[in-house]
Write a structure and sequence with these properties.
The chain is 29% helix and 18% strand. With 126 residues, it is of the alpha+beta class. The chain has one domain (3-122): Fe-S cluster assembly (FSCA) (GMP Synthetase, Chain A, domain 3, 2-Layer Sandwich). The longest helix has 11 residues, at 3-13. The two termini are 25 Å apart.
Length: 126
Amino acid sequence: MDDNAAQAAANATNPVTTWTPEGETAPLIREEDVIAAIATIYDPEIPVNIFELGLIYAIEIEGGAVKVEMTLTAPACPSAQELPEAVHLAVGTIPGVTEVDVQVVWDPPWDPSRMSDEARLALNMF
């Protein structure tokens, strides 16, 4: 299990909540938790998670709603249907998330410069 997956698992068992006189609030959704959930998803053709691959363009959190803007490596990507659904399912497992909206965007187009150094190293692209 990589560090992101371990952190996601820890957060799932210990969600961040706040106590008030009226009772405990819903878990606080943090961007780090969303990233950790997304980092568990790998492109089936590339041995790098989709966050490190640079496919996630934006994450917006408002209350229990999470919006993710992502792209694919190419418009004809064979995983065009499964990757957005995998993001939807992974983000939906985070405690406190009540709504997930995953949008695939094509502007700006993805290119290898969006990959993290870790992804470049894993793919021998230095």
